[in-house]
Structure formats: structure tokens, C-alpha cells
Design brief:
There is one protein chain. The two termini are 29 Å apart. The protein has one domain. The protein has 16 helices and no strands.
Amino acid sequence: MRDSIDFKNMDIAALFRKLLLPTVLGMIFSALFVITDGIFVGKGIGSDALAAVNIVAPLWLFSTGIGLMFGVGASVVASIHLSHNKPKTARINITQSIVVSSLLLMCTSTLFCLFAPQVVHLLGSSERLKPLAVEYMCWFVPFSAFTALLNSGMFFLRLDGSPNFAMFCNIVASVLNIILDYLFIFPFGWGMFGAAFASAIGTTVGALMIIIYLSRRNCALRFYPVKFSRNSMKLMKRNVGYMCRLGSSAFLCEVAIACMMFVGNLVFIHYLKEDGVAAFSIACYFFPIIFMVYNAIAQSAQPIISFNYGLNETLRVRKTYLLALKTAVGCGICFALITIFCSREIVAMFIDRSYPAYDIAVKGLPLYASGFVFFAINIVSIGYFQSVERAKYATVITLLRGFILLTLCFYGLPLLLGKPGIWLATPLAELLTTLFILIIYMGRKRNGKENSISLQHGNHAKEILQEV
């Protein structure tokens, strides 16, 4: 059932709540899957298995990032076309995004699986962890296209006025994951294969639910037949290129988490060996959960901002952004306090006190949590720039926080502060990025632009995206 949503006239606070509640609930269930997957792997297989999953995790984040990139890009341009009463063009946009992203991931997944030992070695695996990492990778990576579709489909369902069904897709996928995870790891004793296969089945079922929804004739946003004429292919190439530019920062946000895991794994294994990687893996299980909530807030604001941006409703856009920012900061404070005061309980969920990684993680998590509030500001700000077609701002901020500053902090802080510096690398990178965003804001304020959105590119999507 489609929900009663009016992006143009509905009160911003009520509209934001209507989108936020089901989006956050769906993300919470996804977070529960991530947590329970880590618990089952740690308790059922061991700390080496946790470390092996952390080695392979960047590949999962890659497929998630592809889904978010095409989801954000297609939903922004589709929002603008819907605000201009062009549903056919919006349908073409989402169809093109799903087809191209699926084909792309089928190709990359095949390459990853064909060269699995070499890939896990490049991701920083030691010889001790390599067999576990290869086993997990070969049973999960082939389903990457469904992982991407589950992520991109959330944007299309919410834009179509069905945030509750989007939430339901996430819940079904997550609950199925949790049940199968337990069955495959404990009663069946399938080890890493069971953990990977359970995740693959859950995401595939959630993606198939989205396909069924978008195939229905009574949906405003639904699949549209793809044409293969030469002119149609040229237009598709141009459309997809523009969608990728708009959503590139969403992809880079996921790749940034992968970069954090990759560089972190290298630094932790250098200073603290495999036990350090196992401890870091607990933080890495926890970090995407925080990201999911912040991302849910940004994704809830995105269709409101994009739709009203297409109508030049500056005040509604600004109000939505500020509301999303306040919500994210409040959540960031809560997450930081919970992590700081409950670090022992959090670590104990994943591994027993007998493992050396336990003490390493207990000492490190409170330091790691000090950056959660800055992370909230950065993610919501990136989402805002995406929604108003300011892809360059969003991309620069993402590259700064997720790659440049992060890498410098990971390698520089341990030299200055020792082992605590490894845990403080991510918080410092997020803090410096927040300061950069404030510099952008102050520069715009000095130019007298703080109360308006530049609309010089307002019709860019209209000029580039044409009906096939």
C-alpha cells in the first residue's frame, strides 16, 4: 500500500517524521543483522573468523556503495522530474540505474571470485586468515547485485510514497539473515560458508521484493522497457553518467568505510598482530550501524529536499536540512555515550574475555566513539549537497574525510600517540572534515548566501536527462 505523502504541501516536520520512522526502523533491523552476524561468527567460529570477515568486508561495502550511488543519483533526478510532472522520464531513470548497476556488479563479482586468493591478499590478509577470508568471499560476493538492488531500491520506494514497504523489505531481509545465520553456524556447523550463504539469501529475498514492487502497473515509479537503439544507448550513457556524478559521494562514503577497514587492518596488524585486527573488527561491525542511522536520516531528507529544490522552494529545503542535522547530532551524542560507558558489554557480545582481542577492544572503543557526533554532521551535509545537485561539494568532502585525512591520521597519529593514536585516527579525520564544512558555510555567509540555494544549475537535470 502506498502512503499518503505530499512532498510539496505537507508540513516539513510531519513529512520528515513520516519518512524517518520507517527508514530508521528498516536500518535498525539491518543493524541488528550486522550485530548478530558478528556475534554468531565470533561466538560460533572464533576471533580469527571475525578478523577474516573484516578483511573481506570492503567488497561488501563496494557493492553497497554501487547501490547507494545509483539509488541517490536516480532518485534525485527522478524527484525533479516528478516535481515537473514527468513520471515517464522518472521511470526511465530508475530502470536505467538498476540495469547498469546490476551488470556492473555481475562483472566485478566474477573477477573477484576468479582471483579470490589474490584479492584477499591485496586486502591485507595474513596467511593465517587467508583460508577463512577466501571461503567467506566466494559464497557472498556472487550475490553482490542483489545487495546493491536492496540498497538502491529503498530510495525508489520512498520516492514512490511507500516508506513502510521499504522498511518491510529491510526487515524481511534482516530477520531471514539472522535466523539462517544461527541455523547455518550452530546446528548445521557450516562455519564461514554458512555465515556468507545466510547473508546472501537474506539480501536476495529483500531485492526480489523490490523487483516485484517496481513491476506493478499501479506504481508511479516502476520499470520501463529499455530500448536498444543507437540513439537510446547514447541517451542512456549520458543519463547514467549524470546519475553517477550526483551519487558518486554516496559510493565514496561506502568506499571510505572500506578504506578505513583496509588501512586500519594494515595498521592494526602491524602494531597489534591478528588480535588487533580482531579487536578492530568489533569497531568495524559497530561503525556501519552508526552509519546506517545517519544514512537513514539523510535518505529521509533527500526526497523532500530534491522535490522542493526542483520547485525552487528554498525555505522548505533549508528547514529540512536543519531538521535532519539536529536529529543526526542528537543520535550521535547518544551513540557516543552508550559506546563510552558500555564498551565492555559491547565487546563481550562478540568475543569471550579469554581472547587477547577483548582487552584491546575495551580500551579502544571509547576513543573511537569520540568522533560519532562529527560523523553525523558530515554524513547529513554530504546528503544535502547531493540532493541539491552540488555533487562537487559532496565529493570533495567525502574524499577529504574518507581517504586523504583518514589515511594521514591512521599512519601519523600512532607515531605521535602510540597505540591509542590508531583508535583516534577516524575521530580526528571526522573532526577536521566538520571544520572544513564550517569553513564552506562561513565563506558562503560572508558572500551573503547563507539563506538561499544557488539555482544556477537548477535545470541541469532537465537539459541532460531526456526521454528515450
